[in-house]
Structure formats: C-alpha cells, structure tokens
Amino acid sequence: MSVCEEREEEEEEEEEEFFNTQIHRCLSEMIDSDDLSDEPSPGSSCVSMKSDRSMGIPPNLSDGPAVTSDPVVDHGGEFRITPGLHKYAVDLTLDPNTAHTYLALSEENRKVTCVYVSQSYPDHPERFDVYHQVLCGESLTGRCYWECEWSGGDVEISVSYKGIGRKGGSRDIRVLLPYICSEQDSNVFGRNEKSWSLFCSDDGLAVLHNSNRTAVSAGPGSCKRAGVFVDVSAGTLSFYSVSDTHTLTHLHTFTHTFTEPLYAGFTLNYVNSSVSLCHIKQHTHSD
Description:
6-stranded antiparallel sheet; mainly beta
C-alpha cells in the first residue's frame, strides 16, 4: 500500500470515528434532557430526534456488511441523500402469500392497492385474514434502507417480526379499521411488541409501537414518500419523509434489541389507497 493510500485510509477511519462520536453524544444529550416519547416497552425505547444539530451520512463508510459503526442519522431535520446511505438500499417485493384478499398486488409485486373486490388468492397459513395488511418477502439483515410512496386514504408503513399474528383478531375489519385501534392487538402492525409503524394520512403523521402512539411532523408540505433505515445489530429503526428533491427529514427513531427476523409491511385502511416500493437511484449533491 502506498503512502497516499495509507493516509486516505487513516482519514476515512478518523472521519467515521468522528461521526460515531457525534451520534452517541447527541443521543446522550437527548436522553439526559428527557426528550423521550411514550413509556417504552421492556427492552426497547423510542427516541425522537429533535436537536438542532445537522449531520450528513459520511460518504466513505466501508462497503460490504457494516457491523462496527452506528448509523449516522440527521438530528436537525433535513439532509440530502448521499452515497453513504444508498449503499444500504435494498430491493424489496411484496409477498403474495401474506396479502389480505382485499389487497391487489401489481408492478411485479412492488405496488399494493386496497380494492373493492376480493382477490382469488389461495389459502395460505401466512395470509392476513382480518386486517388489510401485507409483508415483503425479503428479510432485513444488517443495515437496510428503502423508500415507498403512498396515495389515497390512510396507510401504515411498518417493520415487523415474521411471527406477527395473521389469523383472527379482536376486531372485525368491517366494523373497526386498524388505524383507530388503540388497544393492543397481536395481528395489527404497531399494536404489539412485534412491530413498529409510521402512520401516514393527509391530516398528519404518527409512529406506533405496542399501541403507544407519538405524533411526528414532516415540516411544510405533505409527506407522500417515506424512507426507512434499519440497523439490526445496532438495534435502531428510523423513519424519514422524503421530498421531491430527495431531501430527507428525520421523523423518529426507535431503539430495540431485535430478537427475530424483520420484514417490511404495510397496512391500507381505505379502498383505492396504495403503496409503491421505490427504485432508489443515486443522487449527487454538493454541500
């Protein structure tokens, strides 16, 4: 290795160490100032990032599985998507075997729409049969980032253990939609210890876990595109709103010791509402 290459490597390590120190310091300050959300469930906590500091994702995080450094998230609101975050982008598809019969899949299983007519899906033990929900087929390991767009009525963008309930439940979807469910339910994303959700509507946004609901703000304008970043080994799950100019606004970060495989999932509460998984392209921005 040449002297220049050695120096480059040293600078990259120093920069990564700096960002890691910054995120730990910011988290500590927020916890010390009691800037926490609702009462956390055992083994987990919900951290709402509200500091006025701002940091970008370091562009030189090492390629390949990253297991030694923490994710660098924005603590001041907005930042541009950078190559450092894009290297964790994953290509997800919806699993037809989990889709409720009133959810229609299209665009090579990358879009789901709530419909009037029941779909002719075969019986399957993993199918949701009460609430209008669907899971993706790919498990989330290491660090993963993905984006989705929603339209129509209220939807929920979730991350869930595969072991979430599928059959039956304490409510009938024809009587009470899950988005107004405030009690715990083993079958509904965000209403149990097995799942975490971002509730999206034209009236506002909220995050949910174990039926604890926290309102969040995306700033000016409506949020129709969301980004999700999970670091399984670090135990963090972050939700972002994504603008038309690909600027991310941090909404909320959950911290939890994940003990089961994680999957992306969606709830669609109204007919004609839809969610589409996005193809993430590289965007280059100058500071």
